Amino acid sequence: MSLSNVEEKTTDLLKPWQEIPGPSSLPLIGQLHHFLPGGSLSNRKVFTTDFLYKKYGPIVRFDGRFGSPSIIILYDAEASSQILRGENLTPVRPAFYALKYYRTELNKQEGNPPDAPTGLITDHGDIWKKFRLTVNPILMQPETVKLYRHFLTEVAQDMVKRMRRLRNDSNMIEGEFDIEMNLWALESIGVVALGGRLNCLDSNLPEDSPAKKLINLINEAFRLTEKLENGISTWKYFATPTFKKTMKCYDDQRKINKYFIAKAREELEKKQKSPDDKKGALEKLLDINENVALIMANDMLFAGVDTSATNVTSILYYLATHPEKQSKLRKELASKDEKQSYLKACIKESLRLRPVVIGNIRLTSKEYNILGYNIPKQMYVVFGHQVMSKMEHYYPRPTEFIPERWIVEKSDPLCHSNANPFAYSPFGFGFRSCIGQRIANLEIETFIETVIKNFEVEWFGPPPKIRVSTMNYNTGPFNFIFKDI
């Protein structure tokens, strides 16, 4: 009772969340005018900068409008840790409502029970927790992930061969570099999710082949999802043409994923097994059942292609514009040091400077005392990791590419461990952290290793711009030069 009285008095001293600083509001339209052309927030890129932090401080309020919820953004690592730790048992991370709708309706059509999983991307609460506990030992198991090093190196080597074919006389890649990186990422994640090579890197891949159809469907799914997630949500009230196209795209992609999984299962059944053979991720998922394998394939392909492609583009850009770091990395790779500490440091530093998303999000399940304000239940809170990871008081010389900060001793002022760990969170936090992070890191490590061993990478002109959507996309021109070593 005494504790309860103290909590009530503490809550009484807190300011209501409506008093949190934020853009000014007008009658009827609220803060909408700031997002219209010419408004201070009309360009989404402001959310990747410290503009809001400098103007309003470490906590910013956005009022809900036209059916969208109110949102609070935090630019304080310690405050972020309070909510992230407090929501770590069954965290709710709202996103991808159209995909959730498709998967939920599909479960109904197939006669599945109400508690049947739809996927780690789209589920929440106890359904999500049960499914995560089912697949976690498989996809987060280091020994299982290590099995793919040889296959992913093979994919990287094939991509390097393709890059050589695509170079012009100036050693630049002809065509769209971002699309090429997407092909590499899809081929890599396909090895894990679908159990084998898709041949995405084959220049003569027939247009009517399942692999070519999958490539086109994944690109289309990203484009359509972006439209539904970022536009006015009229599709929630009636089926718009874009909504119908998106539902068909999701369905077609699921059917092709199902085709590849069935094909992989047939090959596994025919394969002569020896006692020393270790099972890969798909085989272990199939041991549970085919539906679990299909759900995880859908999730991995949806979440793992654009993200990995964007990451390697950013890493190559930083290495190209810091030749001394590139040279240092090449020496480490030539030494055959299995730890590859500097390679890992380069990847981490690139993710700090150019993360693939502006931050993480949670829907609160209880009240919080945050920076003097009462944050109620059922409030959307965004953690601005992209901005925090470039703040001077967390990371000295924050805008510089310094991979060494990830490997120096703690006594060095640059050392990353001197920063609050919640200032940097490229793969999320805790129980809801990215289940594919070990696989993603291995993909990226093998590709960057292979490229740096084969090419001197250079860059000219301004840095690639960032287009902010459901994630941060690098946009061209991609002025890379790949010179043979």
From TrEMBL:
Sample GO molecular function, one term: iron ion binding
Gene3D superfamilies: Cytochrome P450
Keyword terms: Heme, Iron, Metal-binding, Monooxygenase, Oxidoreductase
Positions that bind heme: 434
Name of this chain's protein: Cytochrome P450
Listed Pfam families: p450
Gene source species: Euphydryas editha (Edith's checkerspot)
PANTHER family xref list: CYTOCHROME P450 (PTHR24279:SF120)
Similarity field: Belongs to the cytochrome P450 family.
The protein's required cofactors: heme
